[in-house]
Amino acid sequence: MLIGARLIREGVDGVRAGKIVEVEAYIGVDDGASHARFGRTKRNARMFGPPGNAYVYLVYGMYHCLNVVTDSEDRPAALLVRSVQPLEGADLMRRARTELVELRSGRDIARTARARQRVIALPDAALASGPGLVCAAFSIDRHDDGVDLCDPASPLRLEAAPRGEAPPDLAWGPRIGIGYAVEPWRSRPWRVWAVGNGSVSGKAASR
DNA sequence: GCAAAGATTTGCT
DNA sequence: GCAAATCTTTGCC
User: Which CATH number covers residue A59?
Assistant: First the structure.
C-alpha cells in the first residue's frame, strides 16, 4: 500500500519529506487510460521496467508526473502519485514551487510577483496537492525517470510509514483527467485517497 | 513531415 | 466556467 508511505527528497539544501495521500492506478496494456495502451514507446518504457522504479513524464508541456512502477518487467503497471502531505522541509517545497511560478508566468513582472506571493501564502497542506504540484514541490523532473525509489541510498526514495502509525481510512473513485478513455476504463474506481486529509487534490477531497 | 491532443494548473471572463 | 501556457508523443498524410 503506497498511501501513507513517505516520499523523500534529499538535496544539498536539506531534506523534503511527505506522506502520500492520493494515488491512481494504471494497469496493463488493456487499460484504455494508460500510457501503455499503445504498447512500449520511448516515453513509457519505464512502465515496462522493474517494480519500484520511478516513471516520470511531462504533461501539457510544463508539468511533470511521478509514477511508481508496480509490476514485473514487461507488465506495464504504475501508480501515479497525485498528492503528498508535507511533513518536513515545507520551506524548501515552497521555494521550489516559486521557481515553477516564475517559469510559468513568463516575463510579466506584475503577474509573476502576484503569483509568487500567492505561493508564499499557501498553507503547508497545499504545497503538493496535485500530481504536477508534487513534482514541483519535490523538484522531480525527467532526470529522475528510472531511479530506484526503493534504494535507501537514493536521494529520491520511498519509505514505509513508521511502525505503529494508524493506516488512514481510504476512499476510492474514478480517475481524474482521463475523459478520452472508453468504458469501462473511464469509470473504473482506481483513484484512492486518504479520507479527510487536507492535502488531497482539488475536487478529490470529497467523501 | 505536420497537425492534434494530453494522467495539469492557473487566471480571467 | 473556460481558455491559455507549452512541448512531447501519437497518428495520419
Answer: 3.10.300.10
C-alpha cell at A135: 513534482
In a 10 Å sphere around its CB, with 0-12 CB exposed, 13-18 middle and 19+ buried, how is residue A146 labelled? middle
In the numeric block, the cell 523532473 is attached to A141
Tell me the per-residue pLDDT of A112-150, one tens digit each, with 9 for 90 and over: 888 899 999 999 999 999 999 999 999 999 999 999 999
Three cell numbers, residue A108? 510579466
Closest-CA residue to A176 (of A118, A115, A131): A131
- pLDDT reported for residue A104: 66
Which residue, chain included where needed, has cell 487534490?
A201
Range of the domain at A137: 6-87+127-197
Q: Answer whether residue A99 is part of any domain.
A: no
> Which nucleotides of chain B have an atom under 7 angstroms from any protein CB?
5-12
A90-105 and A109-120 are packed helices; what angle lies between their axes, rounded to 10 degrees? 160
Strand C and chain A: which residues 124-163 have CB closer than 7 Å?
A: none
> Per the domain annotation, does A112 fall within a domain?
no
Question: Which stretch of DSSP H or E encloses residue A92?
Answer: helix A90-105
Quick one: which of A58, A54, A38 has its CA closest to A46? A54
Rounded CA separation A119/A199 (Å): 15
Please report, rounded to whole angstroms, the spatial distance between the CA atom of protein residue A157 and the C1' atom of nucleotide C1. Answer: 39
Mean pLDDT of A44-67: 95
With distances taken from each CA to the C1' atom of nucleotide B6, the closest residue turns out to be A60
